UniProtKB/TrEMBL annotation:
Domain Enoyl reductase (ER): 8-346
UniProt-listed Gene3D superfamilies: Medium-chain alcohol dehydrogenases, catalytic domain (3.90.180.10), NAD(P)-binding Rossmann-like Domain (3.40.50.720)
Molecular functions (GO terms): (R,R)-butanediol dehydrogenase activity; zinc ion binding
Keyword set, alphabetical order: Metal-binding, Oxidoreductase, Zinc
Protein family membership: Belongs to the zinc-containing alcohol dehydrogenase family.
UniProt cross-references to CDD domains, sorted A to Z: butanediol_DH_like
Cofactor: Zn(2+)
Protein name as it appears in the record: 2,3-butanediol dehydrogenase
SUPFAM superfamilies hit by this protein: GroES-like, NAD(P)-binding Rossmann-fold domains
Pfam annotation, one family: ADH_N
Keyword Isomerase: no
Length: 350
């Protein structure tokens, strides 16, 4: 079967490998759609970040080259021994987390903070840029009948956004800022609407993405290349209660902190390619808080329930659909060259 595998920086190859077979406790899935994530783009441009290269990952037992793709959904085609609660033909969204189940975080139920955390399609396993995938049965969630397969491919990134907002201090009626209106940033805007934020101020250089942010409910959308974004936010709000950093751009982190009010919070959602610095006194003198967030835990059912209500709409967020053969030129390189794209979905080959 055809797959897209990471071999190195700017070296993703579409190759033929054998179809995987499910072992005990696993299921085989005919992949439908897989999204290209910002994490995938980081691996393409500056990896390895999550991809294991020198040694096998302790949970996937794989190392590069690995089949990429972790934002995906599909249809169950085969059940491994001992799998119950699922049937051939079930449409499922994949929660692609490798967790050991034994470390302190896992024992507390916080499996996204596992000491050996990994992701299918980044840390090994049978990723979604393929015709078929095999994953542990515990990684899949049945999709509601009225959700499309394209929506299924958005469950994973929407879960990132919903978990970030749940982890934040935001309360109904609070004011928020979102720095970066890429796919996750826009999904954070929608999650903030769900949480009852009274104002949502978005900072984004792309005109197309600013327009999209306003379309899905942002109060304002500021171009940081022509406006002092922090000054504009502080003037409008007196400082927001929570700022979400969703760019991974070093100079943006201090802007997020400075956009918050006293005792405000900055939620760092991005995965970073390099260091970022800020003046600690900006946090100390206002008793501000910095909080990191990674992935999600226990939110897939809530995400899909919200999707049935019209949130996290694929119709609004998907800007391009491509074939696996075109994943480099029309996918990764397009995302590098054209900041107007929001979410690109890759259709699985037959």
């Amino acid at each position: 079967m055809k797959v897209a595998r990471w071999h190195g920086v700017k070296d993703i190859r579409v190759e033929d490998i054998s179809e995987p077979t499910p072992a005990a406790g696993e299921i085989k899935i005919k992949v439908a759609w897989t999204g290209i994530c910002g994490s995938d783009l980081h691996e393409y441009l500056a990896g390895p970040i999550f991809v294991p290269v020198a040694e096998n990952h302790p949970l996937s037992h794989d190392k590069a080259p690995i089949t990429m793709g972790h934002e995906y959904c599909g249809t169950v085609t085969e059940l491994g021994q001992g799998v119950s609660g699922l049937s051939v033909g079930d449409r499922v969204a994949i929660e692609p987390i490798f967790a050991c189940g034994e470390c302190a975080a896992c024992m507390e139920g916080k499996y996204n903070l596992c000491a050996s955390l990994g992701f299918v399609g980044l840390s090994g396993g049978h990723g979604g840029f393929a015709a078929y995938s095999v994953v542990p049965a515990r990684m899949v969630h049945k999709m509601p009948d009225d959700l499309s397969m394209e929506q299924g491919a958005l469950v994973e990134p929407a879960a990132v956004a919903l978990h970030a907002v749940r982890l934040s201090k935001i309360k109904a009626g609070d004011k928020a800022a979102v720095f970066g209106a890429g796919p996750i940033g826009l999904l954070v805007v929608e999650a903030l609407r769900v949480a009852g934020a009274a104002e949502i101020h978005v900072v984004e250089p792309s005109e197309v993405r600013r327009a999209k942010a306003l379309e899905i409910g942002a109060t304002t959308a500021i171009d940081p290349t022509s406006t002092d974004a922090v000054a504009a936010i502080v003037q409008a709000t007196g400082g927001v209660h929570v700022a979400f950093e969703v760019t991974g751009v070093p100079q943006v982190l201090p802007q997020c902190i400075n956009a918050t009010r006293h005792e405000g919070q900055t939620l760092i959602v991005s995965i970073w390619e390099s260091d970022a610095s800020f003046q600690p006194n900006t946090a100390v003198l206002k008793e501000r808080q910095l909080q990191g967030t990674i992935a999600y835990r226990n939110v897939y059912p809530a995400v899909m329930a919200l999707m049935t209500q019209g949130y996290f709409s694929a119709e609004k967020l998907v800007t391009k659909r491509i074939a696996l053969d075109d994943i480099v030129a029309e996918g990764f390189e397009a995302l590098v060259a054209e900041k107007s794209h929001v979410k690109i979905l890759v259709e699985a080959p037959e």
